[in-house]
Structure formats: structure tokens, C-alpha cells
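Quarterly update, task 2.4: adenosine-5'-diphosphate-bound model.
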Amino acid sequence: MELNKRQQQILQIVKDNGPITGEHIADRLKLTRATLRPDLAILTMAGYLDARPRVGYFYTGKTGAQLLTENLNKIFVRDYQSLPVVVNENISVYDAIVSVFLEDVGTLYVVDENSHLVGVLSRKDLLRASIGKQELSALPVNIIMTRMPNITYCEKDDMLIDVAKKLIDKQIDSLPVVKVTDQGLEVTGRITKTNITKAFVALVDGDL
Ligand code: ADP
């Protein structure tokens, strides 16, 4: 997060004089307490400053890297997930390719008749099937999909950073977000590299 000039001045005053009250910071900058309030709130929320009632503000001494890690650990799958695109395991590869275009996604999640996750279809899975000699409208997706138990998935309360690590580790583009039940996995969302890129940008912009 980029600090503006006034926020940098406040930080310096607190570093040199803390603990110091909001009133005293305002006096030093010849501003009103009300004018400073938003900047103090931002510095406190971002973790640069801490405030104690009746004592005032003090500098936490945390480095940018420590604050970044703390903020990263506060981002969860539920905050950035998208809607999943789900198809039935009996549809044809031809229809799956049509879904990829119509729904504008890179990965389809395949479910059985009880709506439980049974497979994943990526763009390359569909391309691979298309360069063979098979009749695509007669080829069911469950022949070519990556199937359970080899599917890597996550849950809505998992940390986004752990999902990012799994995507890198497994060299895949997305994870289904599931609800685990006794009967199977219900697909409730998806996390793609795009969702993670959005979180990354929000982190830098201080929008979290
Ligand atoms: P692409 O193959 O289009 O580059 P991916 O890198 O996501 O897309 O997929 C690579 C392979 O991994 C494909 O065979 C796909 O079925 C499989 N795959 C994709 N996502 C998952 C997942 N969450 N769990 C297990 N396998 C996956």
C-alpha cells in the first residue's frame, strides 16, 4: 500500500514521539483532529500504527513484508470465488466445448446425477479429444475428464494463499470450491488464476 504525504508525516511523528494522542499529532501538523481521522484509520487498519485507549497511537514497527503477509492471511476463498460452471458426466465432448464458449470459462466441473463432483475438464483435455478421430458428439466427457479422487479442491473458508500454492504445485488453472457432505462433494464455486490476480491487485491498492 502506497502512503500519501500526510500519512508519511503522521507515521514519522508517531515513530519519534509515540505513544502520542490524535490531538497532539493534529497540533503538530496544525490540522484538526477530524481532518486527520481518516489517515489515522488507514494507518491503523493497515497495521503501521496501533491505538490504545487513553494512551494514544504507537508505531508497531512491522515491516512492509510482515504487513503484506498479515493481510494475505486475511483473504479467504469466499471473498474472491466465482460461480462454477458445471456439466453432467453424460454430456458429449462436443457439448462441453460449446459450454466453454457460451459460459466463457477455461474449466468445466463435471457432476453425476446427484450433483456431486466426479471430474474436471480443462481446455486442453477438450482439445486433446478433438484431435483424435472420434465423433465428438458421441464421446461422453466422462471418458476424457480428470476424475475423482485425483481432483484438487478447496473449501470457502480456506485461505486464498493456500489455493494459490496448490495451483502452482499441481500446475493447474483452477480449483473447484466444494462443500463436503457425507454423500460427496457439492460444487459451490471456483477459484481461478484470475480471481487470485484480482486479490493481488486489491492488496496493493489497499482495497481489502
Ligand atoms: P489446461 O490443460 O487447459 O492447460 P489446466 O492446467 O487447468 O488447464 O489443466 C491441466 C490438467 O489438469 C488437465 O488434464 C485437467 O483436467 C487437470 N486439472 C485441472 N484442474 C484440476 C483440479 N482442480 N484437480 C485435478 N486436476 C485438474
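Highlight for this quarter: The mean pLDDT is 94.
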